[in-house]
TrEMBL record:
Keyword Lipid biosynthesis (UniProt): yes
Enzyme Commission code(s) on record: 2.1.1.317
GO terms assigned for molecular function: methyltransferase activity
Record's protein name: sphingolipid C(9)-methyltransferase
GO cellular component: membrane
């Protein structure tokens, strides 16, 4: 079937002053400290391209979670209470309204606390909590010491508020998080999920998207430039050689080339880049392929940056442009776009609108057009850690990005929208390499970030 197909993906930098008046720094060299000095019982890696994990451990998760037991409790508890007051079916249903949420919270709390690890292959060092963390108050030092691990959600809130510090590099300490943290559900997590995230998932309106995107991405180009570097790309780069440490800029250049190659971009092709960020892909496709690109973003700063970059590269507005608008208002072209790309914007569309979004993309493509989608999601065989980090990301890093789902959800809806999937690539290790370089840039710019945005924002973004 030749009808529209989809590809799914998930030079050394120098200090330079931008037109906006801030500097890009050269990514600092990686630490020479051996990351695998202590055997942990499983094979570890020593690739120059990535931050090699010293403790690749699996914790508790879906394999020990019993849906049968949970459903039984949801049914039996209100039924038992109704029987105690001589009630029938309607009484049971009425009581279920009040017992469902408490039962869910209690079950998830207990399950996340006592469930066994997925496997015991990786040995934890077994060091005391105080080996990794320094609590400022005597009360907290007494509460979290020795083997008394701190819930991760409790920790990161205390860390942001300056109540606890790492005893060493933040990334290195987080590599050993299983040795000092619990991935149990806390009251604060439930509160955020029920009063913050859940209403947004249900509603997910245009005004919500605009408020969240502009409140986030219009914080300041310097804020993002201080870790993204000169390419200003907020998605993963691509490693070309695992045995070499390529620069962040090389990783992102690799990524741009891979995207254009996978979609088979040709001179004169009409291309729509949904969620184009600072317009780097639009500029690359315009300059190197002569494509006619329309980039879409809700970020005002990103729009200005992207159009400025196109003009500086000698690309006329009649060829390529960045538009500040909702993806639902993206302009069509006669006959449809030859290529549509969407690199980590679809998560912001939300679960509620995901199928409609894909159908819109399908309808905007030429009959033989190609859609390239990169999306960050959760694994189906989840661990409690995944869910806790997912809530953290939604609260602090990518607000409204509730469509970070397992791969099966995405592929099913792509095919439901009419797409024929041509290929799927997992780019997790490439993202790890990119994040490692972002982190080193961020640490190098600490004084600048704290001076303009405060210590809390530096801490929120540094781990």
């Amino acid at each position: 079937m030749a009808k529209k197909s989809v590809n799914q993906e998930p030079a050394p930098s120098t200090t330079a002053v931008t037109a906006e008046g801030f500097e890009f720094v050269e990514t600092p060299a990686a630490s020479c400290v051996s990351q695998n000095a202590e055997p942990c019982g499983v094979r570890t890696t020593e690739y120059p391209a990535i931050k090699n994990a010293p403790l690749p451990a699996d914790a508790a998760g879906s394999d020990s979670f019993s849906n049968t037991l949970l459903i039984s409790l949801l049914v039996l508890v209100p039924a038992y209470l109704a029987r105690q007051v001589s009630g029938g079916l309607w009484t049971t249903l009425f009581l279920a309204i009040f017992t469902t949420i408490p039962i869910l919270m209690a079950y998830w709390t207990v399950a996340s606390t006592i469930s066994p690890r997925k496997n015991e292959k990786a040995r934890y060092p077994g060091r005391p909590v105080e080996h990794y963390l320094n609590f400022l108050s005597e009360h907290d030092r007494a509460k979290y010491h020795g083997k008394s691990k701190i819930p991760m959600e409790t920790f990161h809130e205390m860390y942001f508020d300056g109540q606890v510090d790492f005893k060493g590099d933040a990334l290195e300490m987080l590599e050993y998080r299983h040795d000092w943290a619990q991935f149990k559900f806390t009251w604060s997590l439930y509160k955020y999920f029920l009063t913050g995230m859940l209403p947004e998932v249900i509603m997910h309106t245009r005004s919500q998207d605009e408020e969240q995107v502009r409140g986030h991405y219009d914080r300041g180009d310097d804020f993002y430039g201080w870790f993204l570097g000169p390419r200003m790309i907020y998605t993963s780069g691509i490693i070309s050689n695992i045995n070499e440490e390529e620069t962040l800029e090389q990783l992102q250049d690799n990524k741009l080339a891979v995207v254009c190659e996978k979609i088979g971009l040709k001179p004169g092709d009409t291309m729509l880049d949904l969620g184009c960020g600072w317009g780097t892909l639009a500029k690359y496709a315009s300059v190197h392929y002569g494509a006619h690109v329309t980039g879409i973003t809700l970020g005002r700063n990103q729009t200005a940056w992207g159009n400025n970059g196109l003009r500086k590269a000698g690309i006329e507005e009649s060829q390529s442009r960045i538009l500040c608008m909702d993806y639902r208002d993206a302009p069509s072209v006669p006959g449809g776009y030859k290529k549509i790309t969407c690199l980590e914007m679809a998560e912001h569309v939300g679960v509620r609108h995901f199928s409609t979004f894909l159908r819109q993309v399908y309808d905007m493509l030429d009959d033989d057009g190609v859609f390239f989608l990169q999306i960050a999601g959760l694994r189906k065989s989840w661990q409690y850690e995944d869910l806790i980090w997912g809530l953290f990301m939604n609260k602090y890093i990518f607000p409204g990005a509730d469509a970070s789902t397992p791969l099966g959800f995405v592929t099913e809806r792509l095919e439901g929208a009419g797409f024929e999937i041509k290929g799927i690539d997992t780019v997790g290790v490439h993202y790890s390499a990119t994040l490692w370089r972002w982190y080193r840039n961020w640490i190098a710019n600490r004084e600048k970030v704290e001076a303009k945005y405060g210590k809390r924002w530096f801490r929120v973004s540094s781990p």
